Amino acid sequence: MTGTSTSATPPGEGANTARDADHDLADAVEGATPPARRLATARVLGLRPGDCDLAPWFQAVGHGPGLLILGGLVLAQPRIADRVVAGLHGPGDLLQPPAGDGDDTFPSTPFWQALRPSRLAVLDAEFAERTLP
């Protein structure tokens, strides 16, 4: 497949929440006070199988923790020069944007592919600030 297979709304628009998408998480926070439950809410990105452009979502995350995989299977294949390094990521894994160290000696191109329908929680900087102990 070519192009993006992202099925969620663009960053900044309404989406499901992680608590709604993950029943175990909902059960875990159900005993928390209503304000704590509201503070621990994150948008959820849905991916269909195929190539995925996660760049806009990493941009939306900003200085936040990253994209937490709630369900599914995502393949990361950064291309460095003429080499491809693959990493398989599943539920509980945190995806972060490829580190750009400013060294263009070996240009790197990120490539993401959903191998199964996947759900990712968007843990942005605001989420991190709201959930600090």
Low-confidence stretches: 1-15
As a percent range, the share of strand residues is 25-35%
- The gyration radius over C-alpha positions equals 16 Å
Distance between the termini: 43 Å
Mass-distribution shape:
globular
| CATH architecture type | Sandwich
The first-level CATH class name: Mainly Beta
Secondary-structure element sequence?
HHHEEHEEEEEEEEEH
Quickly count the helices. Answer: 5
Overall strand count: 11
- How would you state the average pLDDT, rounded? 77
Q: What's the number of structural domains?
A: 1
Would you kindly provide a brief summary of this structure?
The chain has 133 residues and is α+β, with helices and mostly antiparallel strands.
Layout of secondary structure:
Blueprint: H1 18-21, H2 23-30, H3 34-39, E1 43-47, E2 50-52, H4 55-61, E3 66-71, E4 74-76, E5 79-80, E6 83-84, E7 87-89, E8 94-95, E9 108-109, E10 112-114, E11 118-123, H5 125-130
Antiparallel strand pairs: 1-11, 2-10, 3-8, 3-11, 4-7, 4-10, 5-6, 5-9
